[in-house]
Amino acid sequence: MNIASFAISILSALISLATFARTAWRDHVREVHYQANAVSTWMTGTHVDDPTLCDRKPMEEVILCNRSDQPVYDVVLSTGVQESNSPFRQHVNSKVTDLAAITCTVVGVLPPGVFRSVVIAPSLGMSKRFQSIISFRDTAGNAWIRDANGKLHSLSNNTSTFEAMGCPLPPPYVVPITAVTL
Question: Which N-terminal residues, if any, form the signal peptide (predicted)?
């Protein structure tokens, strides 16, 4: 009986250890994704006429939302285009797939809250749908992209958000943000 109870106690200890390790890993993944999951953006469909912005290019209003309690950094916005019967232009292997169709504007730091800004509008046309794409770095230094479909992608730590969005340095367009009251 002593050997059987010893084996059962060892097995119970191993199961407890495996459960603890799995729970700790799950908590770690949630913690890493916590701030990134709280950041999003969407286009409102409102055209903005401001000749002081971006060399008089057509601009569209975009909402930036940071529901975390910390700011995010190196924020770069771009517009994505979905044409009739085609997928959104997306990020593949941490790079923008079609730079001719996506134009970036830089916000810089996005504090907690909901803000309004502008992005360069994609070219107009029939059967096109516009979406905004955001890249940023969280307070832990992790770089992220939320693509036009809303999917969150982690970038390697040595990839800058500017490089991932195809935005040259120094950035050509830096746009202001204004707080939105809900």
Answer: 1-21
